[in-house]
Structures are given as C-alpha cells and as structure tokens.
TrEMBL record:
The gene is BBOX1_2. This is Gamma-butyrobetaine dioxygenase. Its EC number is 1.14.11.1. InterPro entries: AlphaKG_dependent_hydroxylases (IPR050411), GBBH-like_N (IPR010376), GBBH-like_N_sf (IPR038492), TauD-like_sf (IPR042098), TauD/TfdA-like (IPR003819). PANTHER family: GAMMA-BUTYROBETAINE DIOXYGENASE, GAMMA-BUTYROBETAINE HYDROXYLASE-RELATED. Belongs to the gamma-BBH/TMLD family. It comes from Halocaridina rubra.
Length: 448
C-alpha cells in the first residue's frame, strides 16, 4: 500500500467514524457577550476587528482622469483618488488584455516574451474614466480597465498592498507571548474563524486549537479541510510516542531541544499541527516554544558577526532510516543544505532551520571557521531559550506553529507514560491560498 493509499484509507475510515460520533454539545454564545471566555466567541470578536482593519485598506472605486506622455518610454496616468503614476510601455504591452495576448479563462498570458520589444512605442493613446486604450507602433491595440490599472500602478501604496496579498507582515514575539485560542470544530464550520486563524498564523506564527476530537488523525482532517496534507517520509501524520527501535529521536521519551521540523527537506513543511491526544500525568512532557524571528533579530542587533555566519554558512541536515509504521517510507536517506537563518533580498528573515538531532556531522567549512560557526549556533540557541514560553498542553489541545519561523521542544517524561502526541503538516502555499480565497469570498481581498 502506498502512502497515498494509506492516507485515503485513513480518511475513509474517519468519515465513517465521523458520522457515528456524537458531537459534544458546546456552549453557545451571542456575538454581544464580549466578556465571555468561550473560545469561539472570543475568536469571532477578534475576527470582526480584523475584518474592520482590512476593510479600511480596501481599494476604493477609482476612475482614470487623465493621461500624459511624459517620457518616451511611459505614459503618466492620473486617477480619481489623486494617485499618479508613470506606467512603462513595455509593461503595458506585456500585459495586454486582448484575447490574442491573454487567455481570460486560464487567466494567463499568451503573449510570448520572444515577441516583446523592450523599446515598444505607442502611436496613439486615448482614455476615458473607465479605460486606457493604446495603439502600438505595429498597429496592435490594447485596452486596460482603470480599476485594473490602478491596482497595478507603480506607486508605493499599490506595491505595498500587493505585498500584503502575497504575505502578511510578521509580528515577532518574546517570552510574554500567549497563544491565541480557537475552537477546533468552530474553525471547521465557520470560514471567518478559519480566516482569523490563517491571519494569526501569518502574523504571529502560532495558535492553539482547543476541544480537538480524540482521534489520531484530527490534525490531518483539519489540514484536509484547509487544503492538503504535506507528507514526508514519515507519512501523513506521525505518532510522537516512545517507539521501540525508533527512527527519530523525537519518538522517544527524552527531552527534546527546541527545533524546526524536517530541515532535512529542502522545502521544509510550512505549518506543523501538534495534537496532544493524551498528555503525560505528573511532571514532564511540558512544551517549550520560541519565535525564531524574534531571536534572529536580537542576534542581528547584538551579535552581527554571528548573524552573518548563520546567514552565510550552509549547513547539512540529514536523516537516514527505516519505517516504524506501514504508512512510512520503507527506507529513507535525505540530505539538505541550507543556512540556519535564511534572509531574503530585502534582508528580512525568511526561514529558520534549527534541529540539533538531524544537523549533519559533515560541515563544509575549512577548520579555522568551525569554532566561530559553533559559537554562533550556541549564542543563537541561548537567545532562543531566553525568549521561550513554557506550558503544558492538555489532552485535546492542538498547537499550530509556523515551522519555518517558530521552534518547539518538550521536556522528557517517564518511559512508560501514555503520552501521545500526533504531528502533521500543511504547506504555506496552501495556507495562504486558502486565506486569499476566504478574503475574496468575504470581500476582504485587498486587490483584484
Ligand atoms: Zn493584445
């Protein structure tokens, strides 16, 4: 049976189980009870405020009021809201909306880069409040709706709006952080609550789902509701229990240092769902989490030389082993290579990859650079712990973390404990895709 078949079998079993499961009767609140501590109610209230904030950012209806050829390579366009922008001809020609150049059904460009002249010239420009019409020097005619053009104007505001549609700005947090709570079933039933969770995950990188059903695959079920499960060689979900003959140090009762999951994959899973099916009774099994983004910024400020090392040195991560369960890959041998802190072209922290257990013993450095590399890792590790949050999940809790930003670990616990945690993954591409679709449905998408 392939892993995919196992997943399908798991879900068909769950569907049968779901129909026979008596749903727990939950306290129902009205939207007016703002002092209530019911998770669903709190969540709805915060969703309302979030929606309000987003609505204020929405682009108002705009019309085109004038055009003026200011340079030989662009046209200056003025809109009814006062926005003015030079629009380059090459961009306009590239983005012609006519059926010869653009497939409306597929919403994709047909016009080939091969046919594009970078120094294309307009022979005639006409405009009214709804449309900009350009005849090009080879006779081709292009028309652009003013709303469409306004959203893409090369202004700081239009560019910033698009950045937010792509990904929301992250809000770093430290040791005083408290996870925002969501009711599991409510999040499945109400897209406004799901949107609130998606926004929370993008900004805070962390949240807690409460009242999760006592099923091993409650995590994958929620992920399938959002999009698709991200599989790894451990299959669609991993029982984090004390396994005999284990294939990962996480699957023991030992203390686990804070880490990101699966950096042995070049594309690490975006969001991890950590479901506490059954918590250990007594001391042990506490969770510890931290915001790698927050720690990385402290490192950048206080130890720029170490920040430099961790962003410019590629590390190997590796994982070799065999299946513990029949849904896992029979044998695996992964090696990835990436910096511990990845920054983007704007020098913003894009990804954190810390995992002491699977960090490779091979280091691609000359010997004199090895000790400074360890010093940098140690200082970063100290900052991560100094700003961490410790708590104990209850049975029925499901913590969700941005796995390329936040780290998680746990205290050790007794070997024969019944502690049972399940982990599963969702990729960021799918999470952001769902966020945009819900925003569009609720009329909260910033641009079209
Ligand atoms: Zn065209």
């Amino acid at each position: 049976m392939t892993s995919r078949q196992v997943t399908r079998a798991l879900f068909s079993g769950v569907r049968a189980l779901r129909t026979s499961t008596i749903q727990q009767i939950r306290q129902k609140c009205t939207s007016a009870c703002f002092n209530c501590t019911n998770a669903r109610c709190l969540s709805l209230a915060s969703t309302a405020s979030q929606q309000h904030a987003l609505k204020e950012l929405q682009v108002p209806e705009t019309s085109l009021i004038s055009t003026n050829v200011s340079k030989d390579s662009s046209v200056r366009v003025k809109f009814s809201d006062g926005t003015e922008s030079d629009i380059p001809y090459v961009w306009l020609r590239d983005n012609c909306r006519c059926p010869d150049c653009y497939n409306q059904e597929a919403m994709g460009r047909k016009y080939l880069l091969t046919d594009l002249q970078v120094d294309v010239q307009a022979s005639d420009i006409q405009s009214n409040d709804t449309t900009l019409k350009i005849q090009w020097n080879n006779g081709h005619v292009s028309e652009y709706p003013s709303e469409w053009l306004h959203a893409r104007a090369f202004t700081p505001k239009a560019r910033a709006l698009r950045r937010n549609v792509y990904a929301l700005p992250k809000e770093p947090w430290g040791a005083d952080h408290r996870l925002k709570e969501f009711d599991y079933e409510s999040m499945k039933k109400d897209d406004r609550i799901l949107l609130d969770w998606l926004l929370t995950m993008e900004t805070k990188g962390s949240a807690m789902l409460k009242n999760v059903p006592n099923r091993d695959i409650a995590g994958p079920e929620m992920i399938e509701h959002i999009a698709f499960v991200k599989q790894s060689h451990y299959g669609p979900h991993s029982p984090v229990i004390n396994r005999p003959n284990t294939n990962n140090v996480a699957f023991t009762n030992a203390k686990l240092g804070m880490h990101n999951d699966l950096p042995q994959y070049e594309q690490m899973p975006g969001i991890i769902f950590i479901h506490c099916v059954e918590q250990h009774i007594g001391t042990g099994g506490e969770s510890v989490i931290t915001d790698g983004l927050f720690a990385a910024e402290i490192l950048r400020k206080q130890h720029p030389e170490y920040f430099d090392i961790l962003t410019k040195t590629d590390s190997y991560f590796w994982d070799k082993g065999h299946a513990n369960f029949d849904w896992e890959m029979a044998e695996f041998y992964k090696i990835s290579r990436m910096p511990i802190i990845t920054v983007d072209n704007n020098k913003q922290v894009k990804q954190i990859a810390v995992n002491n257990a699977i960090r490779d013993s091979y280091i691609d450095l000359p010997p004199e650079k090895v000790k400074p590399f360890y010093s940098a890792m140690k200082v970063f590790n100290d900052i991560l712990y100094e700003n961490s949050v410790v708590f104990k999940m209850d049975s029925g809790d499901m913590m969700t973390l941005d796995n390329i930003r936040c780290l998680h670990g746990r205290e050790g616990y007794e070997a024969f404990s019944k502690r049972h945690v399940e982990s599963s993954y969702l990729d960021w591409d799918e999470a952001r895709c769902r966020r945009r679709k819900i925003q569009e449905k609720l009329g909260l998408l910033l641009t079209k």
